[in-house]
Amino acid sequence: MLKAIILVGGPMKGTRFRPLSLELPKPLFPVAGFPIIYHHIEACSQVPGLREILVIGFYQPNEALNRFISQSQQEFQIQIRYLQEYTALGTAGGIYHFRDQILTGSPEMFFVMNADVCGDFPLCDMVQFHKEKCPDASGIILGTEATRGQSQNFGCIVENKDTHEILHYVEKPETFVSTLINCGIYLFTPEIFSTLEVTFKKNLEDNYNYCDQNCHIPGFDFQTPSKEVIRLEQDIFIPLASTKQLFVFPTSRFWSQIKSAGAAVYANRHYLTIYQRTHPERLAKNGEGQPRIIGDVFIHPTASVHPTAVLGPNVTIGRNVTVGEGVRVRETIVLEGATLQAHCCILHSIVGWHSSVGVWTRVEGTPNDPNPNKPFAKLEIPCMFSSDGRLNPSITVIGSNVQVPSEVIILNSIVLPHKDLNGCYKNQIIL
Ligand code: GTP
After folding, report:
1. Is the CB–ligand 1 distance for residue 234 below 6 Å?
2. All domains of the chain, ordered by start, with CATH?
3. Most buried among 20, 105, 194, 323, by the most CB within 10 A?
4. CB 357 within 8 Å of CB 351
5. pTM score > 0.70 for this model?
6. Is 57 in the pocket of ligand 1 (CB under 6 A)?
7. Is residue 119 predicted with pLDDT exceeding 50?
8. Please, which residues have CB within 8 angstroms of residue 84's CB and are 6 or more apart in sequence?
9. Which of 7, 95, 117, 121 to mutate to test the pocket of ligand 1 (most atoms within 8 A of CB)?
10. Where would I find the Mannose-1-phosphate guanyltransferase C-terminal domain in this sequence (predicted)?
11. CB 116 less than 6 A from any atom of ligand 1
């Protein structure tokens, strides 16, 4: 029996995803028509013997999360539960804290998946790899190749190329270590809990010593640093490297992080491409009296799209969206309840929930992805601002409930929710 854990973080996380994460938890943001973690759950549901998914985070349970969990549970016929940390416990603190729930039913192994990644997750292959190549390992990290420049933003892995044993692990190194990076998808056996326990006890002791040394300081807070915080990457992987306990399973399939809105548009494109193989029925088709479809497009069945509209490639039209006459949309996510009025043109953008774009208006962004034609090329992660303090070109994000008037141009801008715009904007954050 196998289980899976999805680490969803909490309200202070997802800051680079604002303003979209102001409306709903980032893990529920829809990409290619479904919430980000729906894609994780779907991947888990295809692993034989995977019986339970535990979603661990420090969000207060809320209606959107509860509804999502019960719907997914029904759809995939798999047990899914949300476990709430009382505070941010780090990427391994929650796993240790909820160890009894994880170990109930004696799972042979369990996956741990960061919620803020997307990909064509080779979960069954990871199980097979453990069985065949490293049955004594307590952990396997899914790894992928990045460019030299990109690698330093990730956990970097040095492996034994023959056995795939991890010899050295450095999280976001300051100098170049390796182009093989950690994808934030892991497979563990229950033996990992002995390493977690050692780290937990050591942290407790350090915390005790720290408090003991500082308790004479007026106003000293005995709660800092939180004694239950464990970081999977720094506290567990670094000491486990080179002990024959930790291996890497390299993949060349699509994988990316989803940290920014630009990355969501990138993920949208790749999940739509995957639908060609896995769910062709989810992709819109050309037909008599239908809008013209170019490439991969997802249209929610409740959306109303005028037959003269032209959509694609790489477009997602959400629930109850209205797309008017002569509208052109490409490389864009249009969220629930939005209205695109006649002849507007939306390129490389996200249009927020219940926003409206006026007639003949142009909303346009600049993709971060330098090479959209190269299959699964890794996304560049640019800084939001240039060295002289200007906003770097990015996709355009229209927050929720924004009114964009007719006959204006909104270029490379981020519009916060509930704005009533009254002109053209270029390279601006509209507060
Ligand atoms: P950044 O570049 O700083 O975002 O670091 P990172 O890419 O290594 O991401 P981070 O370690 O912050 O998060 C990885 C995943 O774990 C994300 O899906 C987070 O939502 C989740 N996560 C991070 N911290 C916590 C935590 O304290 N508790 C839980 N349950 N999840 C967490």
Report:
1. no
2. 2-257 (3.90.550.10), 290-430 (2.160.10.10)
3. 323
4. yes
5. yes
6. yes
7. yes
8. 57, 58, 59, 60, 61
9. 7
10. 293-430
11. yes
**CA-CA distance, 329 to 314, in Å (whole number)?**
9
For ligand 1, whether the C-beta of 27 sits within 6 Å is: no
With both helix axes pointing from N to C terminus, report the angle between 90-97 and 192-214 in degrees, rounded to the nearest 10.
110
Alpha-carbon distance values, 67 to 75, 172, 239 (Å): 12, 36, 39
Strands 414-415 and 429-430: what pairing? parallel
DSSP state of 234: I
The ligand 1 atom nearest the CA atom of 89: 27
Whether 375 shows a pLDDT value over 50: the answer reads no
Ligand 1 pocket residue status of 91, Cβ below 6 Å? yes
**Is the C-beta atom of 23 inside 6 A of ligand 1?**
no
Q: Which atom of ligand 1 is nearest to the CA of 16?
A: 4
Higher-confidence residue: 136 or 220? 136
Measured in whole angstroms, the distance separating CA 327 from the mean position of its chain's CA atoms is: 30
Q: Is 155 in the pocket of ligand 1 (CB under 6 A)?
A: no
The residue whose CA is least distant from atom 14 of ligand 1 is 114
Are residues 182 and 158 in contact, defined by beta-carbon separation less than 8 angstroms? no
User: Percent of the chain scored above 90 by pLDDT?
Assistant: 80
Q: Enter the tokens of residue 202.
A: 């050591």
Ligand 1 midpoint to CA 305 (Å): 38
> Of the residues 18, 91, 196, 230, which should be mutated to test ligand 1's pocket, given the most ligand atoms within 8 Å of the CB?
91
d(CA 296, CA 288): 18
Q: What is the pLDDT of residue 149?
A: 86
User: What value does the mean pLDDT of the chain take?
Assistant: 91
Length of the chain: 431
Closest-CA residue to 326 (of 316, 337, 341): 341
